[in-house]
Backbone:
């Protein structure tokens, strides 16, 4: 799948400057949102979008860099939500609770990865479709979290919306930083080698099994932290909400819309998804997945690079025009 | 548990296995020829269910006849989907990211078209046959299950005939064994792939109709059966028709007998547990086990 590398579009100092300054400006804008008086509804939408950014960036580590498509990230999101909820009710401070959720999800990710990553072929993708259904069914039936009727969180801290918002913002930034570090590390190179040609990668001394397990655990931990932050905000979770297959679909769609395998694609995709989702669900509750499904087909057939791919194409055209102009 | 109970459960499992095989064989043929995991299978199972339902509801076509009609209708739908979308993506000897995502998109579109057209209420196909049952001594089973089993097995026998007695069948088997060698001896890959996709979708549609006679359904209907079909083809080694039959029987037996030890609400998790066990114990499926035997012998 012609996945192009993000970053380093032209290599010129101008574009490098832009790729540092634009994200920082956006970050400053997002940090200022609670002070401009936009109202709780906008902050809620941005809060949700930022948790989506975290999950989307996490998915991209395994799905984008390593090329292992997972349909089951709802499992990690849900495990993070439930672990956080149980820990907070057990008197553990919220940030330790998020961390616990991340650890539980990372362990769970090994349970999926150990049987499937050894094998080449579609086994991982197939198994991830099953796992979210299986976990949802189990969670509907276990008594200590209230089963299908859901679980209520009693947070002793007073509810301040902006605290939750900044938690989500910090987590999203952390996710992007992790993504950049992974991409620039030896592990990141190994993952991309695995995506392009697993046999060649292992001939060159990469252990695909271990590399995939590590990055899958990292991705799961990020998705779980996002689930935990969401759970603490919403104060009530149930298996049909957090473990739903449609959450797994959303987490997969965002990086693809934005640009799979790039640093900023999953972030852009999460914002596009979050905002379209809000509008479309309000107006056509049944049609939103029809729209996203069609979008997915169109992206795969015409622009596998997503929004980032389109932007790069546009920049190349502009640069080609301007260089023709300077020569004449 | 008495012997009669045991026999009843066993017969129920065998009857279920017939439908499971018909439902999974379409996925095997598409995987075998194109190395594509058809994630849109669930969508076509669901469309097949509504096709048979509408044919019965509006035109009073007997559901069993509706299933037979579904074969040609879905064959052409499958060819159309191949022509419109699937032929445009590259394939290799492993399922590509692109193919997984494309067909996943098709599934999302079909499922939500289903919601737009039929809403989210459950439907069921009820005929006089639905409630009658056949009793032989202490053994009894519903007539409808027997009828569905007979149609499923007949369609599989028909497929077996096509695969072994026609040029299309020979091309399919050649491509499943070795794509390059097949091309060298003159198999038209694109044509065969298109027809194979049509046949795969035809079986998905017809199996959806068969399942609709046994269970109530809504637009989300295919998802759990799609997972079962995956488990079956993985058990069967992904591209072996004999493996599909054995895999269907194993899954049907596991799902039927597990109610003796676990509450029925856990049943949807059985297929997944079996998948994980299969991946750990026999990664190449049952057919792989046979191949290993042969190598040792």
Residues:
């Amino acid at each position: 799948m012609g996945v192009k590398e993000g970053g380093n579009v032209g290599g010129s100092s101008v574009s490098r400057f832009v790729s540092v300054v634009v994200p920082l400006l956006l970050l400053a804008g997002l940090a200022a949102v609670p002070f401009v008086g936009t109202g709780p509804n906008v902050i809620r939408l941005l809060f949700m979008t930022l948790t989506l950014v975290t999950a989307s960036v996490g998915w991209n580590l395994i799905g984008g860099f390593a090329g292992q498509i997972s349909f089951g990230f709802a499992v990690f999101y849900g495990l993070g939500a439930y672990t956080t909820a149980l820990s907070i009710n057990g008197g553990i401070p919220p940030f330790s609770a998020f961390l616990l959720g991340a650890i539980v999800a990372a362990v769970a990710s090994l349970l999926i990865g150990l049987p499937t990553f050894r094998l080449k072929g579609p086994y991982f993708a197939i198994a991830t479709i099953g796992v979210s259904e299986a976990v949802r069914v189990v969670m509907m039936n276990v008594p200590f979290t209230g089963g299908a009727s859901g679980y209520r969180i009693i947070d002793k801290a007073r509810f301040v919306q902006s605290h939750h918002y900044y938690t989500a913002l910090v987590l999203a930034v952390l996710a992007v930083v992790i993504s950049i570090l992974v991409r620039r590390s030896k592990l990141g190179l190994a993952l991309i080698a695995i995506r392009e040609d697993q046999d060649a990668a292992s001939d060159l001394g990469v252990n695909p099994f271990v590399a995939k397990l590590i990055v899958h655990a990292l991705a799961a931990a990020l998705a779980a932290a996002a689930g935990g932050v969401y759970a603490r905000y919403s104060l009530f979770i149930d298996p049909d909400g957090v473990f739903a297959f449609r959450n797994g679909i959303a987490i997969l769609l965002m990086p693809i819309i934005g640009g799979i395998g790039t640093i900023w694609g999953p972030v852009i995709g999460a914002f596009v998804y979050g905002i379209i989702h809000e509008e479309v669900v309000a107006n056509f509750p049944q049609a939103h997945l029809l729209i996203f499904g069609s979008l997915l087909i169109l992206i795969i057939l015409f622009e596998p690079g997503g929004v980032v791919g389109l932007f790069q194409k546009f920049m190349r055209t502009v640069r080609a025009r301007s260089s023709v102009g300077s020569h004449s | 548990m008495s012997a009669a109970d045991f026999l009843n459960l066993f017969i129920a499992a065998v009857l279920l296995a017939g439908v499971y095989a018909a439902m999974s064989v379409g996925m095997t043929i598409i995987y075998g020829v194109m190395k594509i995991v058809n994630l849109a299978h669930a969508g076509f199972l669901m469309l097949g269910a509504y096709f048979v339902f509408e044919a019965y509801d509006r035109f009073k076509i007997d559901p069993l006849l509706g299933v037979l009609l579904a074969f040609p209708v879905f064959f052409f739908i499958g060819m159309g989907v191949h022509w419109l979308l699937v032929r445009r993506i590259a394939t290799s000897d492993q399922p590509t990211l692109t193919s997984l995502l494309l067909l996943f998109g098709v599934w999302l579109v079909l499922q939500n078209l289903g919601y737009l057209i039929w809403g989210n209420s459950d439907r069921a196909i009820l005929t006089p046959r639905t409630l009658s049952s056949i009793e032989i001594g202490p053994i009894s089973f519903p007539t409808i299950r027997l009828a569905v089993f007979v149609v499923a097995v007949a369609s599989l026998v028909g497929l077996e005939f096509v695969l072994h007695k026609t040029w299309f069948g020979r091309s399919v088997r050649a491509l499943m064994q070795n794509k390059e060698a097949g091309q060298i001896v003159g198999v038209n890959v694109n044509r065969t792939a298109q027809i194979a996709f049509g046949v795969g979708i035809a079986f998905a549609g017809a199996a959806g109709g068969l399942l609709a006679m046994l269970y109530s359904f809504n637009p989300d209907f295919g998802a759990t059966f799609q997972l079962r079909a995956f488990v079956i083809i993985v058990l069967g080694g992904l591209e072996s028709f004999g493996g599909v039959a054995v895999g269907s029987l194993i899954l049907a037996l596991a799902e039927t007998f597990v109610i003796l030890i676990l509450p029925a609400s856990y049943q949807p998790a059985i297929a997944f547990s079996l998948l994980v066990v299969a991946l750990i114990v026999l990664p190449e499926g049952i057919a792989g086990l046979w191949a290993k035997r042969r190598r040792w012998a």
